[in-house]
Design goal:
TerB-like, globular
Length: 108
Amino acid sequence: MKLQTIQEFELYAMMYVAGLDMKVSKEEMKLMKQDVSPELFEQVADMFRNDSDVEAIEAIREASAAYLTTDAKKQEFIQKLRILAASDKLVHIEEANISMLEKMILNA
């Protein structure tokens, strides 16, 4: 599995959601960096930058199944993603439409 820890998975999925509108805001960046070391952030960012959309979705799907093992964990993580998407106070249609990712997480 590509994402070896739940922390890597959460950060990677947050990068995916933050980048849906093709622009990561200062607020989104702050939320993504708040609970991780600078080294981990750079490691995951490098991995994310080198992956295609298909690879990113597959990595998130695979890690969701491994790390989000209960409905409560799935819902809690989906809420984190929604907070991130709304953090720049400019909810773009791409970020507002994270339902595909949510369905993938819920069905993992």
